Amino acid sequence: MKSRRMLKYKLLFIASVLAVAGCKQSAVVSQGAFQYLYDWESRTLHPEYVVYHHRGDSSTIHFRVFSNELLVTRSKQNAPFILDVNVKASVMDPTGLVRDTMSVSFREASKDRPGWLLGSLVVPMKEGNWNLLVEFTDVSRNLTQPTFISCDKRSTFSSQNYLLTHDETGEPVFGGFLNGAQRARVFSARNTSGQTPTLSRINAEIKLPPPPFSTNAPELPSLSGAQLLLPTKQTDGSFVFEVESGIYFFTHDSSKGEGLAIRSGSMYYPKVKDVSSLEWPIRFIMTKAEHDEIIKSNYSKALIDQFWIECAGSKEHARELIRIFYKRVEEANFYFSTFTEGWRSDRGMIHLLFGNPTQVIRSAEGEVWNYGEDGQAALLTFSFRKVASPFTSNLFVLDREPGYKPHWERMVQSWRSGKIYND
Fold it and tell me: Are residues 400 and 341 in the same domain?
């Protein structure tokens, strides 16, 4: 059955789609200063999106949200409970002017068990570089969650010109991660003029990023020496292949360094639900010897539990430390995933130890994270540069400085002393 892995049910669109072309009103842009930008728990709604440039003049936004995040209501006592949702997409130019807007509303009967709600929306989008503002609204709660998405439609080879789906269900892959032993299917409607795509596999280990005071930069994967694979072309023009471990790169022109990266992760990613997901993030607050003992042990879960109890001083406080730490791991996976898990990235590393910044200043060049208040001597600032990569558009590299060492060591000691509390 197509629903064997998780319960899903499709959205039934029963309201008309409204298209408004040529709008010139200004809109909030994705640059500026933000609070709680990466705080999962501060938001009620967590919609996810995949943008697919299927034509030169329009693009499709695939979206999903977990149904138990939505409020179910009914108009009268004997009426069925329903979900009432609106999704609005605004296409903006680099100056922030809205060029086109599209929205869709739907009402659907609630289900007995929670599951993913999935849908899609086609928006007018010509070739070029665009910013997309998607506003997902739970109408019953009168609650809207905005999301900014950068759309690169200047060539037919950038990642958004490819749609990665689960071959078993036909559903889009949100986040770009598949667990091993799954079949992937890739569509690319703008690359059907006879080009033969290439599929490369990089199986090198992605090392943990160096600490913020290191003189070394994080290692980035390279296509040099990658294994070449042959995907199977289907009658509908798509390509199918098996995903094992490592990073896969699918492209119609490898010389341009543009294409679709497909990452393999655990079955539960971005959630932390297996022992391997518990073992590696704690390396940041452990010595190498301590961590090696856990990795080599047949009883690693027991050793991890014992480590947290020793840090916390009691089982009760250990449970709270574990909850905070692995909540941050999951947040990092959701917000900062690149060619590897989000917690392994530079932003993920800082988020894991220091928590949510007081302020995030975002620009086209990167992000600045401030911990503390402006003008105060205790203000701690981390600067991340946005770096171009064929594998991800979400790569931000920390500007490392020796002066971070006392701050890092103090935070590691705080974790090991159990002096970390909820954000």
Answer: yes
